[in-house]
Design a protein that fits this description.
Layout lengths: L1 H65 L5 H12 L2 H29 L18 E8 L9 E8 L4 E6 L5 H8 L7 E6 L2 E2 L5 H7 E4 L10 H6 L7 H10 L3 H5 L18 H15 L3 E5 L7 H15 L3 E5 L11 E6 L2 E7 H6 L4 H8 L7
Parallel strand pairs: 3-8, 3-9, 6-7, 7-8
Antiparallel strand pairs: 1-2, 1-4, 4-5, 9-10
């Protein structure tokens, strides 16, 4: 019965997602069709105007030639001059299209500047050192949804401990990380870091005290220094070099032609996946946050590179609280505690070793099955 209920819920979620996708696809299709019709109309009007001018020039030339007022050479020049109108008209057409695109772009930029965050900034600062994490009956329903992404979630993680967060896709793992970084506010309940409700904390302080590393590393077309510091000139070069060595990026750094001034390609071009992830670790390490959130940062890597990243994670988590969002059971081996989410609710939470040793726990059943795929 529980299996059938889970299948029904997953089917409903897929159906709702498909409906949204088709609605957006349908709106895009008709907008694209309107744009093509308008573009086709303008292009054809331009071509028709040039053709009409050519016909008029031929008719007028033939009439004047018959009257003996124009020579064939003059008629040829008249038609040639008429044909020369084609290029300016096409250029005007292209410029009109560029102007329309620019106008639409400006409108979108104005919309972005007009956006105002729904988050109200607080006034309290978070304490230094590792932060405790507490969810107190937290629920969240995204706008436009009816089913909650999180439903009455409660747990506490003591400072300096590591929590392994497990669950299927759509169970609420990423939602919890968004709440901890205060990208969203809970619909109900409280999220607290070291006793401070995030609604009362300064947003800038949350961003500084919580570090997030995901699978996708965003790099700028800027120098290594600026990519590591996020353009903060207050961080000394010697400190940057120490962190680079600590994250085992020394050989890569030594190969750079201009050291910290070497410009990186946007999107991480020229770097391996492992080097990009280690750069992301170095970024977070430089912030010295009290809470680290890792969203399966070592996924999709070969074993040798993954071991290298694991050593980087050891340096990163030392003396800090951490939440590791895991899609594979092997990832939570470093965790002190494990929390299993299912459909936005806490199914199981406790010390990892105790849950692994308890034959009745769901976590132990997953370990026995060795079924990492059940978390996908």
């Amino acid at each position: 019965m529980q299996f059938l209920q889970r299948m029904h819920v997953r089917s409903a979620l897929r159906s709702r997602g498909a409906d949204r996708f088709y609605e957006r696809l349908r709106a895009f299709f008709w907008a694209e069709m309107r744009a093509r019709v308008v573009g086709w109309s303008v292009s054809n009007v331009s071509a028709a105007a040039v053709t009409l001018c050519t016909v008029l020039a031929l008719v007028l030339g033939a009439s004047l030639y018959g009257a003996g007022e124009l020579s064939l050479g003059t008629i040829f020049l008249l038609v040639g001059y008429t044909q020369q109108l084609r290029r300016p008209i096409e250029q005007l057409n292209r410029q009109a299209q560029d102007l329309a695109n620019a106008t639409a772009g400006i409108a979108r930029i104005e919309e972005l500047f007009a956006e105002r965050s729904a988050l109200v900034d607080g006034s309290l600062t978070l304490p230094t050192g590792p932060l405790s994490v507490e969810f107190d009956r937290v629920s969240l329903v995204y706008g436009g949804d009816t089913l909650p992404a999180l439903d009455d979630v409660s747990f506490r993680l003591e400072p300096g401990r590591v929590l392994g967060l497990l669950g299927r896709t759509g169970s609420g793992k990423t939602t919890m990380s968004r709440l901890l970084f205060r990208l969203y506010d809970p619909t109900a309940g409280q999220v607290r870091l070291s006793g401070v409700d995030l609604l009362d904390a300064l947003l800038s302080d949350i961003r500084a005290r919580v570090g997030v590393v995901t699978q996708d590393v965003q790099l700028f077309h800027a120098s290594v220094r600026d990519n590591l510091t996020f353009f903060d000139p207050r961080i000394d070069d010697w400190h940057l070099r120490d962190v680079i060595e600590l994250m085992e990026l020394g050989p890569w750094f030594a190969s750079l032609p201009d050291g910290l001034d070497t410009r990186l390609a946007a999107g991480g071009g020229g770097l391996s996946a492992g080097e990009a992830q280690l750069l992301a670790f170095a970024r977070v390490f430089l912030k010295d946050p009290g809470l680290i959130i890792l969203d399966e940062a070592s996924a999709r890597l070969d074993p040798a590179t993954e071991r290298r990243l694991e050593r980087g994670i050891d340096h990163l988590l030392a003396g800090r609280t951490a939440v590791i969002i895991a899609h594979r059971l092997s990832t939570v081996q470093r965790a002190d505690e494990v929390l299993l989410l299912e459909r936005g609710r806490v199914r199981e939470h406790g010390p990892r070793a105790a849950l692994a040793a308890d034959p009745t726990s769901h976590f132990a059943a997953l370990l026995r099955a060795g079924a990492a795929e059940v978390l996908v």
